[in-house]
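Expect sequence, tokenised fold; for instance:
***
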Amino acid sequence: MSERRLGTIARLQIQRSAIKHKGVGYDPAPLLAVEEAAIGPHGISGLADGAHVLDVHHAAHPSGRGGGHRTLSMGFTGHYDRIRGRFGEGFPVGVGGENVVVDHEGRLFAGDLSGWVVIRTAGGEIPLTGARVAAPCREFTSYLLGGTGVRDREEIAADLEFLSEGMRGFLLDPGALARPMPVRVGDEVLLRN
């Protein structure tokens, strides 16, 4: 079994409510950065003001959006460097809504994350598997391009292509966990094959 260090967690965040409004627009205001969260088999919750706040994709979130299709998402700072290089400097790390953003300079693809992505915490390891691409949407892409409204797919085809293949982040499955485990900014992230 081989192991490779990807980096440390630079940002943890949850979505308190939807940030993408299909055909209408994209609003990152519901994103909440936290220093500590809990990742469990049904999703992530963030510790804010002494209480755990469920991510909108958590299976127990009252919105019902937690259908198991997007339990946990992960992005990388190197991807944000490239996004800012194309769309401008005004986009902070995490604006795409990933729950975990790892400080990693390079560009990663889904094939690079085959095997297990492991978060090493003070309380043990959090194994994540099944990395798949978080497909870019018209709403987020239009937001990066500025202006109001959602642009036609044909108009932004090259930008959607740029954001594809994992540039927009990855979806991971925490289903191997028996219970929620605490994770903090600064925890190490590894790739294990």
Remarks:
- The CA atoms of residues 27 and 36 lie 23 Å apart.
- The chain has three helices and 14 strands.
- Residues 77-87 form the longest helix (11 residues).
